[in-house]
Specification:
globular; disordered N terminus; mainly alpha; 55% helix
Length: 243
């Protein structure tokens, strides 16, 4: 049975986020790389830019999760659970199975995982789609005019690279995608197992659930894991001389 409290390391994210609020509408132009001197500086600037945005979006999800846990424990506010279940594509029967699936989906994304993917997918914020569309996670959309058409889109394909008004919106969409798509069921299972065991989110393990995020499959997973291992201290805002 899942523990009914939020671990201290997760509460700290909420507290820090309240104290250091990111710009509600940060855009790619706010990530200024014009006077970056070396690779380490580029990485640090990127992580410092993305970290508060990701923490802010995670904090909102954790707050919603706490409301759901309170509703579950007290058998109240079933309307909230039903509404959130619809938003997270969970068939709601108000039974234990429904609750388990809902809480498996309404949860934060490991910070290091989100930072590694955003750096990888946006070329450290310097890709065309990051700069022009605020798309830091390479996400697609399937409605004509919803974004930008890729230069090398396969013949017959209709997808576009999604356009966002802000980087914050891009992060929000990415988290929702990871939390709801069938493609990332295994990632969510790993995350839930971390919680049940009372452990901190394991970004390295969760990365194993990303084989369908990229056509590169297992090679993509290896790349994300390597980025996390090499850059973890900088990702967490800790001083390091490691590149």
């Amino acid at each position: 049975m899942e523990k009914l409290f939020v671990p201290i390391f997760l509460l700290s994210i909420v507290v820090i986020t309240v104290l250091i609020q990111p710009n509600a509408g940060a855009t790619a132009t706010d990530l200024d790389m014009s006077n970056v001197n070396n690779t380490k500086d580029k990485k640090q600037r990127f992580f410092d830019f993305m970290r508060p945005i990701i923490n802010h979006e995670n904090a909102k999800i954790l707050a919603l999760r706490e409301k759901l846990l309170t509703a579950k424990n007290n058998n109240t506010n079933q309307g909230l659970a039903s509404t959130v279940a619809k938003q997270y594509s969970v068939k709601w029967n108000a039974d234990e199975k429904s609750w388990r699936k809902l809480l498996e989906r309404v949860d934060a994304i490991a910070l290091e995982l989100a930072l590694a993917q955003s750096a990888n997918e946006s070329a450290w914020g310097q890709s065309r789609f990051a700069k022009e569309e605020n798309n830091f996670f390479g996400q697609w959309c399937n409605i004509k005019g919803c974004g930008a058409i890729p230069a090398k889109r396969d013949r017959g394909s209709t997808h576009e690279v999604a356009s966002y008004d802000s980087v914050n919106e891009s992060v929000r969409s990415y988290i929702k995608n990871i939390n709801t798509s069938r493609a990332y069921t295994s990632l969510r299972k790993i995350r839930q197992e971390n919680r049940i065991a009372g452990n901190a989110p394991d970004a390295i393990s969760q990365a194993g659930g990303l084989t369908r995020y990229s056509a590169r499959g297992r090679n993509y997973v290896k790349e994300i894991r390597r980025m996390i291992k090499v850059n973890r201290n900088m990702m967490l805002g800790q001083n390091t001389s490691q590149l």
